[in-house]
Design a protein that fits this description.
The complex is a heterodimer. Chain A is mainly alpha-helical. Chain A has helices at 10-17, 34-47, 49-55, 59-92, 95-101, 106-116, 124-136, 141-154, 156-165, 170-194, 213-245, 250-254, 258-272, 279-285, 291-303, 306-316, 318-343. Chain A is flat. In chain B, strands 2-3-4-6-5 form a 5-stranded mixed β-barrel. Classes of the chains: A mainly alpha, B alpha/beta.
Chain lengths: 344, 244
């Protein structure tokens, strides 16, 4: 994915020279620096606001922007919550705590971490930075990944929302819980068997060494918000494009065939990137689809969608996300079909 | 992006969130219940921006050796994708797009669900019902709980490709990305000129007419208009009665 947004031309140059330690590198010579670019950009946009407003007054553009802003405004608080938790884990909880809290055998740590996901009361935006902090704190990646996948799907808020959205169908709540936990554990064990440490290459995180606790805490918050927030915007743009541009009646074509309908809703969950606290209501309204297909929508959505993929890339590296996301998708669809055929 | 610029972006995004959360602006995008979270996140971002500036100043006044090491350890780390955070900021502050309207409503099938129970109508004449409440009673209870009472409903106008008018309210569960329309067909004394996206307050009675939404075959009940008057956009443009 290449992002071609106004970027300071000087930054690439700085990347290479920075480790050499040139104390005046930022101030020396003629170089765009980012505060200057930012100021110029803001002045430019404010002075052009009339034409910009006219350009976006088309209904398609307005609807796109509304959904875009809505996804960001809705996800940002949960991202901030996750980032605060992750900074607390990174700064105030010693690594020895996790060594004691989790079983030392990774095969056992995976289901324990999966169940622990039930206590993070938020949606998927909060779980990505927390899982990143767990890995940096020395938790076995397999266990951290199980937590990453299970937390947004099986916490009490999401399960309550599912029960409200499917009145009179408590088996839907049970199926969602079982299928999600199954995928989380399976992916954890799969990583333990097949995963290679060099796939997991988290972009460098600011080192806390030599910083006070307060400085380390806020440095971690700033870093995670800038990082994951940028990718969140990418995901929001993709979701808004889908919602505003792709016609909804394409969906009804897929509802008749049982196999196609499961795949169609699984793909829709990936593309729509709806918050896991709200997806049950959307699933409930897709009445033309079978319950198993709707279960696939509920299991896939919190584990992998466009917004999450972008945020996982930011937290764990692109090599990881490219392997992890398709595997999670296949596993989640398989688990939904399995659980759906037993319980629904 | 270096840390001064990051602090500026964090501060602006946080300020925009606080602005949206403390005015009614946030109601165009998310459910009312998220207000404390939106304001809280904005405050945290502002504090993070101030803390960044404060520690940066403190750091630059300490031993220069340390600064070299750490300063450059940080400089190249924030990827260019962080610049994208400016986009929602500009969209929110400069454009502040309106709540979803007739364009989205016509692209999506009516999301009307059968109500769990039909509470007795409140007293008063005419009785004020939410559009979603009326549609549920009309479509799934065949108007039995409505009788011939005079009813007032509020929604915005949407005209489909053939010019058929509907009164619509978007129902929302979490944010505008999951908003879905509930549509009511119009009959009786329909105003001669209808402009899409204008908000109307209709007084009238239950109508037995009904049709199917071409998008998803959902039931669209009708409303027999006696009187129509334009009203300003309500404070919360979405119907949140499904939030439980």
């Amino acid at each position: 994915m290449s992002i071609t947004k106004a970027a300071p031309p000087g930054s690439g140059h700085r990347d290479t020279e920075a480790p050499e330690g040139d104390p005046g590198g930022e101030q020396q010579g003629w170089q765009f620096n980012s505060p200057l670019v930012l100021t110029m950009l803001l002045i430019l946009v404010v002075s052009l606001q009339g034409p910009i407003r006219r350009a976006v007054s088309e209904p398609v553009m307005q609807s796109w922007m509304t959904v875009f802003v809505a996804v960001v405004v809705q996800a940002l608080p949960f991202l901030v919550l996750g980032v605060l938790l992750s900074a607390m884990l990174a700064v105030f909880v010693p690594p020895s705590f996790f060594a004691r809290a989790l079983p030392s055998r990774p095969a056992l740590a995976v289901p324990v971490a999966g169940m622990a996901g039930a206590v993070l009361p938020g949606c998927e935006c909060a779980s990505v930075p927390v899982a990143g902090a767990l890995v940096r704190r020395g938790v076995a990646p397999a266990a951290a990944l199980a937590f990453l996948l299970s937390a947004p799907a099986i916490n009490p808020i999401v399960l309550t929302a599912t029960a409200v959205a499917f009145p009179g169908r408590p088996e839907m709540v049970v199926a969602r819980f079982v299928a999600s936990l199954l995928v989380a554990c399976a992916m954890g064990w799969l990583w333990q068997r097949l995963g290679r440490a060099d796939w997991l290459r988290p972009p460098a995180h600011p080192s806390d060494e030599g910083l006070g606790k307060g400085a380390a805490f806020w440095s971690s918050v700033r870093h995670d918000v800038m990082h994951a927030g940028g990718f969140l915007v990418v995901g929001a743009m993709a979701a808004a494009t889908l919602k505003a541009v792709v016609p909804a009646h394409w969906l009804s074509l897929a509802a008749d065939n049982p196999v196609v309908s499961v795949l169609a809703l699984a793909v829709l969950a990936v593309l729509l990137s709806i918050c896991s606290e709200a997806d049950a209501f959307v699933a409930a309204s897709l009445t033309q689809f079978s319950l198993t297909a709707r279960l696939a929508f509920l299991v896939v959505g919190p584990m992998i969608d466009l917004k999450l993929f972008a945020m996982q890339t930011a937290t764990f590296g692109r090599g990881f996300a490219l392997r992890f996301a398709p595997a999670t998708f296949v596993m989640a669809v398989a688990s939904s079909v399995l659980v759906g055929s037993v319980l629904l | 992006m270096n840390r001064q610029a990051q602090a500026a972006v964090l501060f602006l995004v946080g300020g925009a969130m606080v602005h949206a959360g403390t005015t009614d602006l946030y109601l165009r995008y998310v459910k009312a219940g998220l207000q404390p979270l939106v304001v809280g996140a904005g405050v945290v971002l502002i504090v993070a921006a101030l803390a960044t500036v404060w520690y940066e100043r403190k750091r630059s006044s300490t031993v220069p050796d340390k600064e070299v090491e750490e300063g450059h350890g940080h400089v190249h780390r924030e990827p260019r994708v962080s610049w994208l955070l400016i986009l929602p900021l500009l969209a929110l502050i400069l454009v502040a797009p309106p709540a979803l309207g007739s364009y989205s409503a016509l692209r999506t099938g009516t999301a009307l669900q059968a109500p769990l129970a039909y509470a007795p109508l409140p007293s008063g004449d005419p009785v004020r019902l939410s559009l979603v409440d009326y549609a549920g009673r009309a479509a799934y209870d065949h108007g039995r709980s409505l009788g011939d009472r005079r009813i007032v409903i509020t929604g915005f106008v949407a005209l489909d490709g053939k010019g058929t008018p509907y009164l619509v309210r978007m129902a929302l569960n979490c944010c505008a990305a999951d908003a879905q329309p509930v549509k009511v067909g119009l009959t009786g004394r329909i105003p001669p000129v209808l402009q899409p996206d204008t908000w109307l307050e209709l007084t009238g009675t239950y109508s037995e007419l009904r049709t199917k939404d071409p998008v998803n075959n959902g039931i669209i009940p009708f409303f027999d208009i006696a009187e129509a008057k334009p009203v300003p956009t309500p404070r919360d443009p979405y119907d949140e009665s499904w939030n439980g």
